[in-house]
């Protein structure tokens, strides 16, 4: 059950560096959120348990998901992501402010490769590997998933590792190894599709490297692939 898995995720303490950082951020807080109680724990996935589209990000933001307890919630990247999911029919509203704001996802589930906020938003490879079994377990519990949308190269690499974990040595048969790119897509040995998108970070959205139209195109394509 996803509820049982969520309990395992939110109590995880496998990575000492991440535990120390997420809890310190939750104690010290950002001035703008000084009146709020921070979540300060690993952040589980969120969405439709019968989803065909699984959206994989990097990690919770220190003052976003680490504050609100819901992935991509309470930060600019989440604003961008959920606005696009709303425009393309996957979300009932375009905003994601806090865990009880009424947001619901349809046919989509959003998670992160690393479930704790990392210092400088840069998790270590060992921390990624500690966390990936949680995403693998989510996918095992959601057999309807047909498309994994990867937000950034880190998520792309994580998804290829997930394929190996959930279907034997699947990626070993993918030669050459699929390269990440915006709108890059590949059919995996498991039968799922991998679909790449630039991450909706401010570094990409403020510079125009990622536009609303580009993000919407990713989810429109995910809808097409999901029914193949």
The second-level CATH architecture is 3-Layer(aba) Sandwich
Number of strands: 6
Q: Largest beta sheet, briefly?
A: 6 strands, mixed
Uncertain segments are: none
Query: What is the CATH superfamily classification?
Result: Uracil-DNA glycosylase-like domain
Read across the widest sheet, the strand sequence of neighbours is 1-3-2-4-6-5
Order of helices and strands: HHEEHHEHEHEEHH
Principal-axes geometry comes out as globular
Tell me the number of helical segments per DSSP (H or I, 4 or more residues long): 8
In total, the number of domains comes to: 1
Which CATH class is shown? Answer: Alpha Beta
What fraction strand? 5-15%
Spatial separation of the terminal alpha carbons: 27 Å
- Mean pLDDT over the residues: 95
Q: How would you name the oligomeric state of the polypeptide chains in this document?
A: single chain
CATH fold type = Uracil-DNA Glycosylase, subunit E
**Radius of gyration, in angstroms, nearest whole number:** 16 Å
Helix/strand-derived class?
Answer: alpha/beta
Helix content: 25-40%
Give the helix/strand layout:
Blueprint: H1 2-10, H2 16-28, E1 46-47, E2 53-57, H3 65-68, H4 76-87, E3 108-112, H5 125-141, E4 147-151, H6 153-166, E5 185-187, E6 193-197, H7 202-205, H8 212-226
Parallel strand pairs: 2-3, 2-4, 4-6
Antiparallel strand pairs: 1-3, 5-6
Helix pairs in contact: 4-8, 5-6
What would you note in describing this structure?
- The protein is an alpha/beta fold.
- It has one domain (about 1-225): 3-Layer(aba) Sandwich (Uracil-DNA Glycosylase, subunit E), CATH 3.40.470.10.
- The protein is built from 8 helices and 6 strands; from the N terminus they run ααββααβαβαββαα.
- It has helices at about 1-10, 15-30, 65-70, 75-85, 125-140, 155-165, 200-205, 210-225, and strands spanning about 45, 55, 110, 145-150, 185, 195.
- The longest helix has 17 residues, at about 125-140.
- The protein is globular, with a radius of gyration of 16 Å.
- The model has no long low-confidence stretch (mean pLDDT about 95).
